[in-house]
Amino acid sequence: MSSTVPSVIQPRPAAQQDPRLLRRRHALVVVLTFLTGCADAIGFLSLGGAFASVMTGNMVLLGLSAGRGDAELALTSGCAIVSFIVGVLAGARVVGSARPGDPVWPRRVTWALVLELLVFVVFLVVWEVTLDAPGARVHLALLMLSAVALGVQSSAIQRFGVPGLSSTYLTGTLTSLIAGVAARSPWGSLRPKAQVLLALMVGAAVGALVALHLPVVAPALLIVPLVLVIVVSLRMRT
């Protein structure tokens, strides 16, 4: 897998990149992180108790299932992990590797997000068709679709080649933020990390509320932000 996932390369010195485009890229990543929070909340509350993007959490659940002898949890968390890996591999094939001289938003990133959108459209169809009579197998299939989609998204963000930039795995972002606070780093350098983490938590809160009280519109929390990011990225002059 390591030979397929895009390497971390700084595409272009920051001084040569348009600050407005950098801010716009960050805003789009924040929107994608909101989507991630929604997907994880929906997966955990409605699709079997596993996460769509937090593979570390799913690995813990997989180990927990072994200790408890819980075959159902093992199947759910294991399938989520495998599906996420499939999504990462597919996304990596679409986006390729970061290269010196890359624009702020390479077009291949948008293509990968279109692939993610197609997966979520299938998710929408299955969700709506089975909403009145869902079963364990349907829930597992929906969780796997969501994990594939977020795996694709994870590879898409890696294409930027910016160390620490992510919309799906954010423990490092939290660590960096707290370390920066302890070191009294300027707020301007900490704000982007705080925004991403806040977007994840807000997305999880919104996703939980919708999954519990208005499940019919839950897929919209995944599709609408993604469509917004795709449309805006297509209009970016990079």
How large is the count of helical segments? 8
Mean pLDDT level: 91
Low-confidence stretches: 1-11
**Class based on secondary structure composition and strand pairing:** mainly alpha
User: Using DSSP, what is the number of strands?
Assistant: 0
Shape: globular
Strand content: under 5%
- How helical, in percent, are the residues? over 70%
Largest sheet: none
Account of the 3D structure:
- By secondary structure, the protein is mainly α.
- The chain has one domain (35-89, 103-234).
- The protein is built from eight helices and no strands.
- Helix 2 packs antiparallel against helix 3 (71-95), helix 3 runs antiparallel to helix 4 and helix 3 (71-95) runs parallel beside helix 5.
- It is globular and about 50 Å long.
Entry keywords:
238 residues; mainly alpha; disordered N terminus
Secondary structure: elements and pairs:
Elements (H helix, E strand, L loop, with lengths): L18 H28 L8 H14 L2 H25 L11 H23 L6 H23 L12 H12 L4 H27 L6 H15 L4
Helix pairs in contact: 1-5, 1-7, 1-8, 2-3, 3-4, 3-5, 4-5, 4-8, 6-7
State the gist of this model:
With 238 residues, the protein is mostly helical. The chain is 70% helix and 0% strand.
